[in-house]
Each structure stands twice: as structure tokens, then as C-alpha cells.
Specification:
Helix content is 66%, strand content 7%. With 407 residues, it is α/β, with parallel strands linked by helices. The chain has 2 domains: 19-255, no CATH class; 264-406, no CATH class. 41% of the residues are buried. β1 and β2 form a beta hairpin. The chain has 22 helices and 5 strands. A 5-stranded mixed sheet has the order 1-2-5-3-4, sandwiched between helices. α12 (197-216) packs across α13 and α15 (263-286) packs across α22.
Amino acid sequence: MSESLNQTAPVPAVEAGPRRVVERGERRFVLLGTAHVSRASAEEVRAEIETGDYDQVAIELCDARHAALTRSRELADMDLFAVIKNGQAGMIAANLALGAYQQRLADQFGIEPGAEMRAAIAAAEAGQTPLTLIDRNIGLTLKRVYRGIPWWQRATVLAGLATSLVSSDKISEEDIEQLKEGDMLEATFNEFAQQSAHMHAALIDERDQYMAAKLLSAAETPGSTLVVVGAGHLKGLAGYLEAGMDDPAGRIAALDTVRPGARWVKWIPWVVVAVIIIGFALGFSRNIGLGWQMVVEWVVINGGLAALGALIALGHPLTVVTAFIAAPITSLNPTIGAGMVTAAAELWLRKPRVGDFSTLKSDVTTVRGWWRNRVSRTLLVFLFSTIGSAIGTYVAGFRIFGQLVGS
């Protein structure tokens, strides 16, 4: 399990992908199930499109995943600070981690990530056949997964996902068999999806509905559509197509909606800040020495843990100092996070080079690569210093409360 992924193994031979044919109104849908670890799937997709029997090709990709496959320059054009400022750092990191999982498969089996989808795109363009992206945005899917599980399970899922995606272990035979029959996202979250009905629903069933609704929206026009999807979606997608939908557009809109978090959660940081400020005031009113002791402990605990996070991310020494100074201040203003300040410092001190963007996808396939690449390391500085500051806020807050009660 711990052997290097640099040694490639022969690609397992697989039979032609399964298929289902569904007719709705004037439109005929040919659903072709593909295997994620087979060159044969890519070849079969290409050959099927080249028959000229289809006036439309639909593939299991969203705009973001399509861009990742076809527009590699987008990473180089990414405004990293804008990404962090807009609160998208976590999502970018998650997408990179999922891409790293796919790249590990490529390294182990000598295949190209998304080979069957690339083949579909290329063949459709060559034959001037209209191409339709039918999958839901990966960001929305991950958000619905995150929102749908209890809050106490989220940390476990995120930690387990991060560990499994950057692990240097080879993909097991059991995982490979699932990838032949299943879905890349489901396989990535497999351990947790088996324990959570909502997670499985968001990853598979909801996307089956979404893709069916996208296809049914154009079912009134006569013709034939080749639908290229992972084999794990074949049964569910065919079922929804056969059953039909009264309002496909409405179903799409509903599945594109992310349930908002509980309103009271948004007030927690402000309540914590109010409690801490009141604690400082009470401390100084009782004893000047006690008040200054609280302030010192606040700075040391909050700043120290944020600095530790930046240090773990191997941030620049001045970034670590910035984290120590900024965290105690930003923690008293929930609108500005310590991670945003430390990330800005890291970007100023170690501006990512063109090469960092060009090698980003390959670098994040290893633990060392996350820390070596300046782009991914900046994301780690943001995430770890944010986590450190958050922990420091609550630890220091409880410490202040305890001193008030005990004095």
C-alpha cells in the first residue's frame, strides 16, 4: 500500500461499457456507462460519436470540471487573493484535492484523468456535434453534502477526506473495482457515503435527477443524444428519464439551491467577541493587574495558535509574525479573518511564480507538494492560521471566563 505511485501498472482490461436506451417524445437517449480506469472507455466513446448517429453529445461534467479539463490556463490567470477574499479558498483547496485523487489514479494506472470525457469533447468538436454539460456544479454538490450532514460529523469527514486524498498509498483493488462501476466523487467519499444517506443522495441520486432534468429540457426536439456518464449513474439516470418530469426547469432550480445555515450560527462570533470585551472590562474594573493579565493571555493564546498554524503551513517567518500580531485583533472583528491577513502577507513575501501555477495540479498529488508549491502553500497558510485563530479565540475566551469566575 505504501509503494510509490510513480511506477505505473498495466491498465486492467474491461469490457465495453454498459448502455441503456431511453426514448422520450421525439428524442432518443443512448446512455453509455464508462469506466474511470480504462482506456477502452475513451476509445469506445470516440468510436460511438464518430458513427455520426447523434446530433447531440451530453457528458457528465459541469462548467468548472469542463474548464479544468480543457482550459488549463485558467489556473495561471487565477487571482489568488481575490479567491481568498471572496471566501473561496476552501472550495479551491477541495477541488485541488479531488483533482489530486484523479491524478493519483493516472500515475498508478498510466491513464489520463477524465480520458473518456476528453475523448467525448474532442470527438464532438471534430464532428461539429453540439456538446452539452449536464452535471451539477461540483461546488454546489460539495456544499449540499456539507450542509446536509450534522455539524459534529463535518470535521471528521473533512479530516478523513484530506488524509485520504494526499495519502501516498496506492489505490486498493477494492477501490478500483468500485471506480469501474461507480462514480469518481462517490468513490472519493466512499467511506463516509456508506454511513450517510444524505451524502449518498447529494453525490449520486441528486445528480442523477439533475442530469435527467437537463436532458429532458431538450426532449421535445427530435433527434438522438449520446449521454456519456460514469457507469454508477446509468441505472438512476435511466430511471428518471423513463419516469419523466413535469417541471425539469423547476427541478434544476431546486437542486441548485444550497440550504442556508442556521441563523443563530452566524451570531456566535459576535457573541463571543461581546463576551470577551465584557470580560476585559470586568477584569479591569476588578483589578488593573487582572485586566492586563487577560489581555496578555488573549494575545499569547490567540496569536500563538494562529502563528503555529502559519508555521505548520511553512509560511514565511514574517508571515508567522504577522499571524501572531493580526489574530488577536482580527478575532475581535468577525468581518476580517486572520487567515486573510496572513495569506496577503504570504502572497506579498512569496509571490507565486508562473511555474507554481503550471505544476499546481501535479504538486498537490503528494503531501510534500502541497507545501512546496507557493499557490497551495498560500492556501494552507490561510486555512491553518484561520483554524489556529478560531481555536485560540475559544480557548482564550474560556480562560478569561474562568479567571472572572475564580477571582
